[in-house]
């Protein structure tokens, strides 16, 4: 058996319907981690689907409660063929966002796989059940063809990523030995374009903030008091306008990266952003001037207003409101220290006359740390060569994905290089009604992962496990 036989078998796994059958069962389990009533489903997904699939491949599987009561369970599957061999960690999450059942297009259900041309509809098809289903299948096919993997494999699945991965850091510290590996190869998020395989090497960090201004008790008639009482909605709008310009440029230096490293700029040369037919059109005038679209989203920081409230938006009355509040977010790169964000904003607001505006971390929201692997790392070059060998396409190398995830657990806490190979695309309606994957993309992803896992045994990257 050879590399190509693995790829052909994975093509057959997709073509004969076995992939859809596996995915159909998994999507049918409503693992909405945002709904406490669904907590039993989080365990059922691991116990009924992932554990049996891995045990069939001779993985030793354990399911663990989360040390944080707000979080769902974890699964660790370990197949150790040789303690001295290369060990690879693979990550996935089995929880999904709310199904939003009533908002899906007529004829679609979040918990039922529906095919429409090349589209495969269902909640979790791309985020993340379909993605780790692809990776499990690729591991299984390599074992079937070789009789062994040729490396050690640790498969980790969490069930509360969609609520911020509570407990994952404490769990990883407690399970450091069980999760130790030389390399992470995992899948989440979208490709940079539909037809271009993509590797990303980390993620931007995220901090959610609340800006609030409370001036008095109760509203007062705008005809009698307008022009006499300061309007907090207007003042807070001006405070935000002092932080970020009308074209989206961050105006507080401490919130911006100090530089764009040459290796990062080079890696992003020629990278275009395309969300597919249903994706939004890019506003080229928005964001940091002088940067390409790829540099703005993969290598720079952004300040976003996610929600803004003053008065009663659902039933506006003729009154000067007493307060205003904005829920904001900073996405940042490894060049920023998030510990300095709030002090810097406090200094900036005070210096610009907004001393009454309060700024704090949003309650209940974790700070996601930024990570970024050097594009010149040998594991990156190895993965890119493997994907090009399989597809004939040069993959896009993204130093970090625009979104955020707990990649710092693997990159910083456990000290391993991280390679992410996404199996989705930007127009997939992730987190929205009508979530879907593209069958042609997922079929190609099966080929890619089969090639990567085969190459790990035959021609692995020249890396060594970090010494303790």
Structure description:
Helices cover 32% and strands 19% of the residues. The chain is α+β, with helices and mostly antiparallel strands and 468 residues long. The chain folds into 2 domains: 3-203 and 370-458, 3-Layer(aba) Sandwich (Aminopeptidase); 205-257 and 301-361, Alpha-Beta Plaits (2-Layer Sandwich). A 6-stranded mixed β-sheet has the order 1-2-6-3-7-18, covered by helices on one side.
The side-by-side strand order for the widest beta sheet comes to 1-2-6-3-7-18
Q: Give me the Rg, rounded.
A: 24 Å
> What percent of residues adopt helix (DSSP H or I)?
25-40%
CATH architecture of the largest domain: 3-Layer(aba) Sandwich
CATH fourth-tier homologous superfamily of the largest domain:
Zn peptidases
Tally of DSSP helical segments = 14
Number of strands: 19
CATH third-level topology of the largest domain: Aminopeptidase
Give the overall shape, derived from the CA principal axes. globular
Major sheet description: 6 strands, mixed
CATH class of the largest domain: Alpha Beta
DSSP strand content: 15-25%
Structural class: alpha+beta
The termini sit apart by: 38 Å
Question: Would you tell me the overall average pLDDT?
Answer: 95
**Uncertain stretches of 5 or more adjacent residues:** none
**Count of domain modules:** 2
């Amino acid at each position: 058996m050879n590399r190509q036989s693995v790829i052909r078998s994975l093509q057959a796994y997709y073509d004969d319907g076995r992939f859809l059958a596996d995915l159909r069962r998994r999507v049918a389990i409503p693992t909405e981690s945002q709904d406490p009533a669904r907590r039993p489903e989080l365990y059922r997904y691991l116990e009924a689907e992932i554990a049996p699939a891995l045990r069939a491949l001779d993985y030793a599987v354990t399911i663990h409660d989360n040390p944080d009561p707000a979080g769902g369970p974890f699964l660790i599957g370990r197949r150790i063929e040789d303690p001295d061999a290369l060990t690879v960690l693979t990550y996935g999450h089995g929880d999904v966002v709310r199904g939003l059942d009533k908002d899906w297009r007529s004829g679609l259900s979040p918990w039922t796989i529906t095919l429409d041309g090349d589209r495969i509809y269902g909640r979790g098809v791309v985020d993340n059940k379909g993605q780790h289903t692809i990776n499990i299948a690729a591991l299984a096919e390599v074992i079937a063809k070789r009789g062994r993997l040729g490396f050690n494999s640790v498969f980790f699945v969490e069930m509360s990523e969609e609520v911020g991965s509570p407990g994952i850091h404490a769990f990883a510290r407690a399970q450091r030995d069980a999760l130790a590996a030389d390399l992470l190869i995992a899948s989440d998020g979208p490709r940079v374009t539909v037809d271009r395989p993509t590797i990303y090497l980390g993620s931007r960090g995220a901090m959610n903030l609340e800006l609030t201004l409370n001036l008095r008790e109760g509203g007062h008639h705008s005809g009698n008091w307008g022009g006499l009482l300061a309007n907090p909605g207007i003042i807070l709008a001006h405070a935000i306008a002092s932080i970020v310009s009308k074209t989206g440029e961050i105006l507080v230096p401490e919130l911006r990266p100090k530089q764009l490293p040459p290796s990062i700029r080079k890696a992003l040369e020629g990278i275009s952003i395309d969300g597919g037919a249903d994706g939004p059109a890019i506003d080229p005038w928005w964001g940091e001037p002088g940067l390409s679209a790829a540099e703005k989203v993969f290598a720079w920081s952004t300040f976003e207003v996610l929600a803004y409230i003053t008065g009663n938006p659902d039933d506006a009355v003729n009154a000067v409101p007493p307060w205003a509040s904005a829920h904001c977010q900073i996405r940042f790169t490894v060049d920023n220290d998030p510990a300095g964000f709030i002090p810097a904003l406090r200094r900036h607001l005070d210096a610009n006359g907004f001393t009454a505006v309060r700024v704090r971390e949003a309650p209940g929201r974790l700070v996601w740390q930024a990570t970024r692997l050097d594009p010149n790392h040998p594991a990156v070059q190895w993965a890119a060569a493997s994907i090009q060998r399989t597809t004939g396409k040069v993959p896009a190398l993204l130093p970090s994905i625009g979104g955020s995830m707990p990649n710092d657990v693997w990159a910083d806490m456990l000290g391993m290089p991280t390679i992410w190979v996404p199996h989705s695309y930007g127009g997939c309606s992730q987190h929205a009604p009508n979530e879907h994957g593209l069958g042609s993309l997922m079929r190609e992803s099966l080929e890619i992962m089969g090639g990567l896992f085969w190459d790990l045994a035959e021609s692995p990257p020249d890396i060594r496990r970090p010494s303790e």
